[in-house]
Structures are given as structure tokens and as C-alpha cells.
Design brief:
The protein is α/β, with parallel strands linked by helices. It has three helices and three strands.
């Protein structure tokens, strides 16, 4: 079951990448380390923290203050920020 879960998470990550890659030309896109994100959160930097996993996976654990918009509904969600200058940080997978 753990292998199946890991495979599903990899597939979800690839799908997210395929969806987000076309939008990289609209602004800066880069990877953040967990330490960088923690520093941003600790400093109070304004950002939109997006977790695109399923509701079930989100409820199993997530970063406080993050917004859950399952991958299949991101494009039609009204939860996405309207301001194009909003820094969006997307996370969905952790290695434990």
C-alpha cells in the first residue's frame, strides 16, 4: 500500500508540473527548500500557500495556513488569488 501511495504522489506531482509549466513564463518559478519556506513563513512574508492534494490527504497533514484546492479543480476554483502579484507557493509531497 505504501508503494501505491508513493506512486500516486509521484504521478500527482508530474501532473501538477505539466499544468504549471505553461504558467512559468508569467513570472518567476523556482524550487524552495523547506528551510527557505519556513523562513518566509516565520518572517510573516505574504504568500498564498497552496496544497493541491485530495481532501483526504490534506486532512492527514498540511502546513498551517495552507489552502487545499485538489488538483482536479485548480483551474475552476474561486479560491485562487485574484491579484497576479501574489506569491503562490505550491507544495504537495514530503519525504519522511
Amino acid at each position: 500500500m505504501k508503494v501505491f501511495s508513493a506512486i500516486c504522489r509521484v504521478i500527482i506531482g508530474l501532473i501538477i508540473a505539466m499544468i504549471l509549466i505553461p504558467y512559468t513564463c508569467l513570472g518567476e518559478y523556482r524550487d524552495l527548500s523547506a528551510e527557505e519556506l519556513k523562513g518566509m513563513l516565520d518572517s510573516g512574508q505574504k504568500l498564498y500557500l497552496l496544497n493541491p492534494l485530495s481532501d483526504i490527504e490534506f486532512n492527514e497533514g498540511h502546513i498551517s495556513g495552507s489552502v487545499n484546492i485538489p488538483l482536479h479543480s485548480i483551474m475552476r476554483s474561486d479560491k485562487m488569488p485574484k491579484n497576479m502579484d501574489t506569491l503562490i507557493v505550491t507544495y504537495c509531497l514530503s519525504q519522511q
